[in-house]
């Protein structure tokens, strides 16, 4: 009985760590035909993100689970764009 409790106590921190949500950010890159980064930038800022422009490409750093709202905002602007998001840990 003591051995089972000891094993359970040793495995509990591992189980707790595995169940935590991913605590990172996503970095989305917006590029497309005739996209004006200045028009897309408010979509990034509206979703608690920070943006950076490189030529005609907008890079937007967003909290996790905000990418869908960002994509919808860009889509609603009517641009034929590609929104590619990668995830990374802080």
Comma- or semicolon-separated keywords:
90 residues, alpha+beta, Alpha-Beta Plaits, 31% strand
Structural account:
With 90 residues, the protein is an alpha+beta fold. The chain has one domain: Alpha-Beta Plaits (2-Layer Sandwich). The protein has 3 helices and 4 strands. α2 packs antiparallel against α3 (67-76). The chain is elongated and about 70 Å long. The model is unreliable at 16-20 (pLDDT under 50).
SSE order and pairing:
Layout lengths: L1 H17 L6 E8 L4 H10 L3 E5 L2 E7 L3 H10 L4 E8 L2
Antiparallel strand pairs: 1-3, 1-4, 2-3
Q: Taking strands numbered 1, 2, ... along the chain, how are they ordered across the largest sheet? A: 2-3-1-4
Reading the helices and strands in chain order gives: HEHEEHE
User: Portion of residues in helices?
Assistant: 40-55%
Class computed from helices, strands and strand pairing: alpha+beta
The top-level CATH class is Alpha Beta
Give me the CATH fold name: Alpha-Beta Plaits
**Main pleated sheet:** 4 strands, antiparallel
**What count of helical segments does DSSP give?**
3
Strand tally, please?
Answer: 4
CATH architecture: 2-Layer Sandwich
Uncertain segments of ≥5 residues (pLDDT<50)? 16-20
Q: Characterize the overall form.
A: elongated
Signal peptide: 1-17
Keywords: Signal
